[in-house]
């Protein structure tokens, strides 16, 4: 099947356009009743015009290509829509407002037409440069009306849109046009469809691609790639109907000696029924990375004989070591506090030959607040004199360092000490996923390929029940929900940090990581929807939506790293330096909407040239090898 053309990439916005978003509702809001405050809202800073009309940064690569397709279709007369609005298959216009002013904090006001579809917000200015702003409604966190009937002053009456990806939008409406109410209602309806009893756009999307992304991950095939089944580990479908643990996948790998009747008991002793199961096994030493949730020991220090025996079986499955490391992702104080709620951690007295280590990674609420501070720092204006101290005060880089350091400790135990590691936090679906996925990325070169990384996300994040719906809030208007948190974003940030230290160890480039994050929010694809594999099976996500991997794997050249070097001599295990001296702020993501921070080089063009040059050099090297082989053959045949 060939891909349908004429679509415009979801996130191709001129990165000149967005203001500061406060992640929580408690933060300072605009005073809608005072004309003076409303007038201040309408003011912009045209003197700070850092931005150019075109962007050459990698985050706009796909959108640039798709815009060219849309323009070509428009010129040939195949687009018959208002203002040649490019639509995805299944996308429909739901409302339009003319004479709307976009308030850019850099270039000043721009007047034009605002269109709302069931997928995106689309603004086209009326000036000759025809600036286009486009944002998927899945990215919207909240929408607020600004100004009222008594508001005075230019651009004092309108709408402010707060986004999940480090940017804001501000639009001013003329009161006499009565357009604000219509736009506001349409935005509320299609940005938060679940709150309005509607389907997410992913269920309306009719795009067709040459690749089937749903076939990327097959759990039994992935376990067999790692050498399971074997003498010590077996594949089980005991959870095939999700009755043992509803947040775990249908297929597990567990110690071969485990009895089915013990599984139920162990599940009852672990939070949410999330018992220890295999994530990764070392191909030589058989040391393993396993994952689970906290034990339900409580303040009385309960014990479970079956759980202790089960942990011993995991330990015995590794003949290279007679001990196990239990990595508890939480700070010690948090783990102790969980005892009062019935949770806790393993006692080294109860679990013989097990060593307990706390990794001091903070909870989802701390991380949410840290990202909120980072967003305030990065947009709309960056204070040069306080930039470094401002970054430090967010603690974001410190949190990234702690997560990366935890993964490095796991790698050290498995690779150098040949010791199995059990990882958990409280429920085993946030910090645990960060640590297992990162450590597997560092241990196994397969996960550093494009398809391997897709498998890693499918396996450790999606199948093992990271609650994407709750953490991201797809289609939900409750922006201040305490369950929202940037857990997956931190994982991708840690991956990016590793690519900076090992630039030729990864097949994928930075644009691939940004594309994944963009579609984490967009609701264009079904990949990140819902909280568990069971929920996706009930919603028949594979039948009713398109996979993100269908999109990426149909455009692989966009995401290839020209510096990638895949050969037998390459380092199999990566050990990044988890020091604050080496951890950097990912400006290409967090600051990409601020034109003063945006790269000015034509990165995509350079990557294409490097990929072509790399292919030419590899072909030339192959020809020389053949020629050398032929010479050696001739010299062996001919007399001395």
UniProtKB/TrEMBL annotation:
Gene Ontology annotations of biological process type: phosphatidylinositol dephosphorylation
Protein residues bound to substrate: 338-341, 363-364, 425-431
Region of interest (Disordered), ranges: 1-90
Myotubularin phosphatase domain location: 213-590
UniProt-listed InterPro entries: GRAM (IPR004182), Myotubularin (IPR030564), Myotubularin-like_Pase_dom (IPR010569), PH-like_dom_sf (IPR011993), Prot-tyrosine_phosphatase-like (IPR029021), Tyr_Pase_AS (IPR016130), Tyr_Pase_cat (IPR003595)
Pfam families (UniProt xref): GRAM (PF02893), Myotub-related (PF06602)
MF-aspect GO terms: phosphatidylinositol-3,5-bisphosphate 3-phosphatase activity; phosphatidylinositol-3-phosphate phosphatase activity
UniProtKB keywords: Cytoplasm, Hydrolase, Lipid metabolism, Membrane
Active site: 425
PROSITE patterns: PPASE_MYOTUBULARIN, TYR_PHOSPHATASE_1
Primary site of residence: cytoplasm
Membrane topology term: Peripheral membrane protein
Family, similarity comment: Belongs to the protein-tyrosine phosphatase family. Non-receptor class myotubularin subfamily.
Name under which the protein is recorded: phosphatidylinositol-3,5-bisphosphate 3-phosphatase
């Amino acid at each position: 099947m060939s891909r349908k053309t004429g679509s415009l990439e979801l996130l191709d916005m001129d990165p000149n356009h967005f203001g500061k978003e406060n992640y929580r509702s408690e933060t300072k809001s605009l005073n809608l009743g005072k004309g003076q405050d409303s007038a201040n809202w309408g003011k912009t800073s045209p003197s700070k015009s850092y931005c150019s009309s075109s962007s050459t940064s990698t985050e706009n690569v796909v959108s640039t290509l798709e815009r060219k397709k849309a323009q070509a279709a428009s010129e040939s007369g195949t687009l018959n829509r208002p203002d040649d609005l490019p639509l995805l298959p299944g996308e429909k216009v739901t409302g339009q407002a003319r004479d709307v002013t976009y308030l850019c904090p850099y270039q000043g006001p721009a007047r034009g037409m605002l269109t709302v579809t069931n997928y995106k917000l689309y603004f086209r200015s009326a000036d000759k440069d025809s600036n286009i702003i486009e944002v998927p409604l899945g990215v919207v966190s909240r929408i607020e009306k600004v100004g009222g009937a008594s508001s005075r002053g230019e651009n004092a009456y309108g709408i402010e849109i707060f986004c999940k990806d480090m940017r804001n939008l501000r639009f001013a409406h003329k009161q006499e046009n009565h357009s604000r109410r219509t736009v506001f209602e349409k935005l509320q309806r299609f940005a938060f469809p679940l709150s309005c009893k509607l389907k997410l756009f992913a269920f309306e999307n009719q795009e067709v691609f040459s690749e089937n992304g749903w076939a990327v991950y097959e759990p039994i095939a992935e376990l067999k790639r790692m050498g399971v089944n074997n003498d010590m580990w077996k594949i089980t479908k005991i959870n095939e109907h999700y009755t043992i643990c509803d947040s775990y996948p249908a297929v597990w790998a567990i110690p071969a000696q485990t009895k089915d009747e013990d599984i139920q008991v162990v599940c009852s002793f672990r939070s949410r029924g999330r018992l220890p199961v295999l994530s990764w096994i070392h191909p030589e030493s058989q040391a393993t990375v396993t994952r689970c949730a906290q034990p339900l020991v409580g303040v009385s220090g309960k014990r479970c004989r079956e759980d202790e025996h089960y942990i011993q079986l995991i330990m015995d499955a590794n003949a290279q070591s007679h001990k196990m490391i239990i990595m508890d992702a939480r700070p010690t104080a948090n783990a102790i506090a969980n005892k009062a709620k019935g949770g806790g951690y393993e006692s080294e007295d109860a679990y013989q030959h097990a060593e307990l280590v706390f990794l001091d990674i903070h909870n989802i609420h701390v991380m949410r607040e840290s990202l909120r501070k980072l967003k305030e720092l990065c947009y709309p204006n960056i204070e040069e004199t306080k930039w470094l101290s401002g970054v430090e005060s967010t603690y974001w880089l410190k949190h990234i360092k702690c997560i990366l350091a935890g993964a490095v400790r796991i790698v050290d135990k498995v690779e150098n000490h040949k010791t199995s590691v059990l990882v958990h936090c409280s429920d085993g679906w946030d910090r645990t996923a960060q640590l297992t996925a990162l450590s597997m990325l560092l241990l196994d070169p397969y996960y550093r390929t494009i398809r391997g990384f897709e498998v890693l996300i499918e396996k450790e994040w999606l199948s093992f029940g990271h609650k994407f719906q709750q953490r991201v809030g797809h289609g939900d208007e409750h922006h201040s929900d305490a369950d929202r948190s940037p857990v997956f974003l931190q994982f991708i940030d840690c991956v990016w940090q590793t690519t900076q230290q090992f630039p030729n160890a990864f097949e994928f480039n930075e644009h691939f990581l940004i594309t994944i994050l963009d579609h984490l929010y967009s609701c264009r694809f079904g990949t990140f929807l819902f909280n568990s594999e069971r929920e996706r099976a009930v919603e028949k996500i594979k039948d009713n939506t398109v996979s993100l991997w269908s999109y990426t794997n149909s455009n692989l050249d966009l995401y290839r790293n020209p510096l990638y070097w895949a050969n037998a001599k390459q380092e199999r295990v990566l050990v990044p330096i988890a020091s604050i001296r080496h951890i950097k702020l990912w400006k290409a993501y967090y600051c990409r909407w601020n034109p003063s921070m945006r790269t000015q080089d034509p990165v995509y063009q350079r990557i294409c040239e490097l990929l072509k040059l790399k292919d030419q050099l590899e072909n030339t090297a192959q020809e020389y090898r053949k020629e050398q082989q032929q010479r050696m053959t001739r010299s062996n045949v001919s007399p001395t």
